[in-house]
Predict the structure.
Amino acid sequence: MTAVDAERSLEEILAEYLNGRLEATGPITIEDMTRIAVGWSHETWLFDACWTDRDGEHRRGLCLRRDPGNALLRGHSDLAEQYSVLRCLEGTDVPAPTVYWHEPDPAVLGAPALIMERVPGECPSPWRKAGREFYAAAADRGVLPLSFTDALASIHTADWRAVGLDFLGVPGPGDDFARREVAKWRGFIEESGHPGHPILADLVCWLEANAPATDRLTLVHGAYRTGNVLVDDDRVSAVLDWELQVIGDPMYDVAYVLTELNREGTELLSNVVPRELFFERYQSTTGIEIDEERCRYYQLLYAMRSAAFWMSASGLYADGSNTDLRLARTEWSVTVALERAAQELGY
Amino acid sequence: MVGGEADRGLEHPDVSLALSEQLERLSGTLRNEIGPAVGDEYLRTQAFMASVILAKLAKEVALAPVHDAAERADLTELHERLGSVLAGAPADLVAAADGAESAGTVAALGPLVVALYDWGTDRPAAAEALSLIRIALRRDIDRRMEIAA
C-alpha cells in the first residue's frame, strides 16, 4: 500500500476518484502501483485500474502525475497546461499519451494531478551506461533513429492553430520568440534567489544582443531528446515531458538534438541518430531547412537554461522548500553550466 | 567560497584535524559504510548524495587559500588594465568599473559586464574591456571547476 495520509492509501484514494469516472458496475481496484523516477518535476506513478461493467472485466494501465509544488520547474510546470496540450495533440500525428483527467484540487489526490494512458514502452536514461548501450544498439538496428527523427518532425509539422495550441501564446514577428525565451529564463533565475555569476550576466547580455529572427512558427517541445520519449519495439511510442512546450522556432528543438549536452561521448545525436541521417530525414520530412547558425544561438540559450534549472534546484534546497539532497548537489552543477556557457561564448 | 581560515583544525588537546580532512573522512564513511547499509533506495541515494556534497565541501575548504589568493591577483591585474582601457569611457561606466574594483570580488564584475553591453560591445574600448574581464572569468570558472567537476 502506498501511504498518502494517516487514514487512506493512494490506491484507495485513486479507486474512489475513478469510481464515477469509469462506468463500473462494481468496485474499482488499483493494482501494481509503482512510483517511477523520471526527472525532478513531478511524481509519476504507474498502476492498473481493474473494474467490471456490463461487458465484463477490464484492466487498464494508467499513469498518475502529481505536482508536489516544490519541484525543479516551480510554477513553470503547469499540469492544467499539460492537460490542455495533450488534449490538443490528440488531433495530430504526434505520438503522445491520451490524457483522461486533470484534478487541480490538491485535496482530492494529494496534489494537483493528471491521469493519463500508460503507453507501452521503456525510457532508458541516456545518462546511465545501460541507457547509452540501449540507444547505441537501437542505432545499429536503424529503426529508432528514423522514428526519433520522425516524431520530432510530427511535432514541427502539427497544425498547431487548427488544434487550438495557440493558447500557449504566439510570438510576434522577428526576434520576439528568442527574446521571450531569454526573458522567461531570466525571470526564472531571479525567482531562484541564486546570486548568479558575471558569466551569466555576459551570456544573458549576449543573447539579448544577438536574438535571431524566426521565419516560421511551429509547436516546439522544448526538451526533445532520448530520455523524454518512450520507446517500444524500436519506435517512439510516446513523446513525454510536455512541460516546456511553446509556439516558436523549430530550430529551438533541433538545437537540442544537435547539442553535445545531450550525448555523452558519442557522435550519435541524442545518443541515437547519426548526424547526417538526422539532417536528411528531418529536412525531407518537414520541408524545414536546418539553420545551424540559429541552432548555435539556441545552444547558448540552453546553456542559460541549464544554469537556470540548477540555480532553481539548488535554491529549492537552500530555502528549505525541498529536502532532497540531489537538489543540494546541483549547486556545483551551476558551475558546470557556467563553464559550458563560457565555452559557448568563446572563452 | 569558504574562507581560508575555515580550514583550521578542530580544537582538541590531543588531535587536531584539518576541517577539509574531517569532511573528507565523513564523506568516505557515508559512501563506504553508511550508504551501502541503507535498505531504502531513496534514502540510500540521499546518503550517497551527502557523501558527494561533503567531498566537494572538503575540496572547497582545502583549496580556499590558494583560490582566494589567485582571485585577488587576477582582480588586481584586471582592474589595473581596465583603468587605462576605460579612460575615455562615459562616467556611468567608469563608476561601474570603480564599484567592481572597490568590491574586490569576481561576483562584482556582473554589473560592469552589463554596463559594457549597454555602452555597446562594438566599440573597441568596450570589446577590449570585455575581453579582459572574460580572461578573469575564465580563470575563476576554472578554479570553480576544480571543485565542481
User: Anything to note?
Assistant: Chain B touches chain A at residues 45-46, 49-50, 52-53, 56, 106-107, 109-114, 117, 121, 130, 133-135, 137-138, 141-142, 144-145, 147-149 (CB under 8 Å). Helices of chain B lie at 19-37, 41-85, 91-103, 109-119, 124-148.
